[in-house]
Amino acid sequence: MDEKQLIAARAAQELKNGNVVNLGIGIPTKVVDYLPPDVTIHLHSENGILGLGPSPTEEEIDPDLVNAGKLPVTIVEGSSFFDSPSSFAMIRGKHVDVAVLGVLQVDQYGRIANWAIPGKNILGVGGAMDLLEGAKKVIVTMLHTTRSGESKIVESLSYPITSQRRVDMIITELAVFKVDKEGLLLMEMADGCTIEDVKKHTLAPFRLSSQLTSNVR
């Protein structure tokens, strides 16, 4: 598996049987492909679907069946369709157990920026703000650095903030952080990764868990 697939596979371990889950654009969309065989979840999409299935093969693609990111999807038996206001009412009513989001940056307190880059056209905020406020648990999945090698985990956000709500967990190809009232807590490191590697690529301060593990992926 490549780095993005490894991140998605680790995030899939956080989902519990029966969870209602919303998967954001990018790495989060891959999570459904790595669910443990004994876990069944109900995938929600902001454009009005509950009951998404695994990513479609070329033969399964239906151009009329897409998620909120306009990517082709499959559906499972018992899935349902509804309008956008009903979909967002589900989110705002706290009926989504877990949201998995891709982000541009995370700060030292676990607050994220994921909807706008200054100077670039904005397609729309989508459901990110609503999911941060409404989902019971929020997991960030992202590459640890940008293409130019700059850390995405920063002391202070340089992009517009999405919400004041802190996320609960950050999963990258290098590490897994838990977010608590004091900030970031390093829980796991990828195979072959050292604490110095994580520090080198992380601009935000973080603490080490007493249960810190490695070789987890």
TrEMBL record:
Q: Could you tell me what this protein is called?
A: 3-oxoacid CoA-transferase/3-oxoacid CoA-transferase subunit B
Naturally occurring in which organism (per UniProt): Pseudogracilibacillus auburnensis
Q: Which keywords annotate this record? A: Transferase
- Protein family: Belongs to the 3-oxoacid CoA-transferase subunit B family.
> PANTHER family under this entry?
KETOACID-COENZYME A TRANSFERASE, SUCCINYL-COA:3-KETOACID COENZYME A TRANSFERASE SUBUNIT B-RELATED
Taxonomic superkingdom = Bacteria
Quote any Pfam family the record assigns: CoA_trans
Which molecular function terms from Gene Ontology are attached?
A: CoA-transferase activity
